[in-house]
From TrEMBL:
PANTHER family: LARGE RIBOSOMAL RNA SUBUNIT ACCUMULATION PROTEIN YCED HOMOLOG 1, CHLOROPLASTIC. It comes from Synergistes jonesii. It comes from the Bacteria. This is Metal-binding protein.
Length: 212
């Protein structure tokens, strides 16, 4: 598990995750997927333990994340769907107060043992919109942690709101406008446009003089 972006030094380490934790040890046993094409399914719960770092901010899982697996065989491949569901918390994008949201992610993978695709071992190929992961012939178990992590982070919203009508913070004094008006005067506008305003005002005066 990589914790933060710095190397561990005694007790000094970042308290967030940038990849799947080592505690996620779940694996898919390929022999458990029926060879007749019947659907195989499984479900379990995982805990992140630490906040997740993504989109430049930290997301806290408020409870265990529910994971659902669905897999079946087709034409020498195993089609695997990984779905995640959780409730996360992060600072509101407008007022910075805690905000929470239920998220659900789902990704599909194609696991192949076909000879024609063995040349791509370790490198994913594409089959339309699907990602093909070519496996070594001796592999019987698939590490699910990277796939679960990918399904989780791709479902994280880039910004959460504490409520849809959040009024945010006053740009002048920083007061939370959801609690009460701050009394600051409204900004008359971007001062960088003052030169243009003066130019247009002068142009209008010149036009008025020419019309007299």
């Amino acid at each position: 598990m990589r914790v933060g972006s710095e190397v561990r030094n005694g007790s000094n380490m970042k308290e967030y995750l940038e990849e799947a934790p080592q505690s996620w040890s779940e694996r898919l046993v390929l022999s458990a997927v029926p060879k007749d094409g019947t659907l195989y399914s499984d479900g379990f719960a995982l805990s992140a333990g630490l906040p997740v770092s993504y989109w430049g901010q930290l997301y806290t899982l408020l409870s265990d994340m529910e994971v659902e697996l669905r897999a079946y065989r087709s034409e020498g491949r195993v089609i695997l769907t990984v779905a995640t569901e959780a409730e996360v918390s992060a600072p509101c994008a407008r007022c910075l107060e805690p905000a929470r949201e239920k998220i659900r992610g789902e990704l599909r993978y194609v696991l192949s043992l076909r000879r024609g695709e063995e040349r791509a071992v370790g490198e994913p190929e594409s089959d339309g919109d699907e990602e093909i992961i070519a496996l070594d012939s001796w592999e019987d178990e698939i590490d699910l942690a990277p796939m679960i992590w990918e399904a989780l982070i791709t479902s994280l919203p880039c910004g959460l709101l504490c409520r849809p009508d959040c009024r945010g913070l006053c740009p002048q004094c920083g007061a939370n406008l959801n609690e009460a008006p701050c009394g600051c005067k409204k900004d008359a506008g971007d001062p960088r446009f003052d030169v243009l305003k003066n130019f247009m005002r002068g142009k209008g005066n010149d036009t008025a003089k020419n019309q007299k």
